[in-house]
Amino acid sequence: MFRRAYSTATANGLKKTPLYDLHIKYGADMVDFAGYSMPVLYKGQSHIDSHKWVRSKAGIFDVSHMLQQNLKGDDVIPFLDKITPSDFKASKPWANQLTVLLNQDGGIIDDTIVTKHDDDKNFYIVTNAGTREKDLEFFKNESQPFDVKFEQIDNALIALQGPLASKVLQNFTNEDLSKIYFGNSKIIKIPGFNNLDIHLARGGYTGEDGFELSIPKDVSIEFTEALLENKDEVRPIGLAARDSLRLEAGMCLYGHDLNDTITPVEGALSWVIAKNRRDPNVNKFNGSSKILGQLADRSLVKQQRVGFTSKGPAPREGTEIYSKEDPEKKIGVVTSGSLSPSSSERINIGQAYVERGYHKSGTPVLVKIRNKLRDATIAKQPFIPSNYYRG
After folding, report:
1. Contact between residue 132 and residue 67 where contact means Cβ atoms under 8 Å apart
2. Running DSSP on this structure, what letter comes out for residue 188?
3. How many whole angstroms from its chain centre is CA 88?
């Protein structure tokens, strides 16, 4: 059973998040992102300023455009076993897992965070805004044989990210945040807001410590503004920095670095395939024969997601990659790329798909920018060390 929730729209037809008026108040430059009017930059902050602020202090991102749902029913585990390669039966209550939704050919429909709540019949799932309608149709079709119900959650969703995130949030709750580690969730109370319940997940999309907070929309602006009161520690941050932060952290952007023709093995996400689900004679999930075949025989993998670095003009999505040894041989394409704001040496970073054989870190390659071949090097991800809080 599906219950739909709708957002109000701007004059140009774009949907608004519950925090839209706050973005306008803070002078945001609003852009169309996945059909929503979203802040890309705020007045008085450059992209580089915003990026470095999150790396050193704390930033607030509006991610309310993402689809939040509760998933309940007797067959939740069998359903998740069919559409993902992960093991949610073994998950502890209030643990989060990054996983992928798979089509019948093993392609990635979307990447997602799934949280088990108190038992095997109660889960919370967050999927991407740009794939909202596709995901809803996928869930509807795939859930037909199962006793599962989806309930959309009409809350605001904010990400508080950066090394000061815990300090900022601790001022608002009596919950000891030092006891909640990366990859875990909890319902916490906010005494100053009439003991408001907020769903907290420790994690995020930047590589820094932080939280994603699901907040009732009627108090979302008031609560977010309260977090922003300490201007020396926290600022609102837009999509420009969110993209460069996630790229430095080696995280994928669906629709660019992943799509429904790419398998988890090709997408360098084999680690989401649980060890106890790798026996092809026992485990059956969407596309399992193809995916497990690729795990067993890497010669079946024709392309591989990799990281790379370069100098000079930054490679962008669609930039062609060529062999260093044979410059006429095209071996891949860039899916994400930009200057690394954290680098003091003006190094470019990116993600790409290249033919296997060229995928190992340290391999020299060429990127074609402005009709000129320039040096680049395949590199390990993340490009900067992650700072997740693990206790």
Report:
1. yes
2. E
3. 19
Report the distance separating Cα 291 and Cα 84, nearest Å.
11
| Helices of type H across 282-357 | 288-296
* Domains 1-249 and 302-391 belong to one CATH topology: no
> Residues 55-89, buried b or exposed e (16+ Cβ, 10 A)?
bebbbbbbbbbbbbbebbbebbbebbbbbbbbbbe
Predicted TM-score (pTM) of the model is 0.95
Cβ count within 10 A of residue 14: 18
Full DSSP string of 7-55:
--B-TTS-B--TTHHHHHHTTEEEEEETTEEEEEEETT--HHHHHHHHH
- pLDDT tens sequence for the chain (391 residues): 323 333 466 657 899 999 999 999 999 999 999 999 999 999 999 999 999 999 999 999 999 999 999 999 999 999 999 999 999 999 999 999 999 999 999 999 999 999 999 899 999 999 999 999 999 999 999 999 999 999 999 999 999 999 999 999 999 999 999 999 999 999 999 999 999 999 999 999 999 999 999 999 999 999 999 999 999 999 999 999 999 999 999 999 999 999 999 999 999 999 999 999 999 888 799 999 999 999 999 999 999 999 999 999 999 999 999 999 999 999 999 999 999 999 989 999 999 999 999 999 999 999 999 999 999 999 999 999 999 999 8
At 173, is the secondary structure helix, strand, or coil?
A: coil
Q: Where along the chain do its domains lie?
A: 1-249, 302-391
> What is the CATH topology of the domain spanning 1-249?
Gyrase A; domain 2 (3.30.1360)
Topology given in CATH for the domain delimited by 302-391: Elongation Factor Tu (Ef-tu); domain 3 (2.40.30)
* Helix 47-56 / helix 239-248 crossing angle, nearest 10 deg: 60
Please tell me whether 151 is known to bind a ligand: no
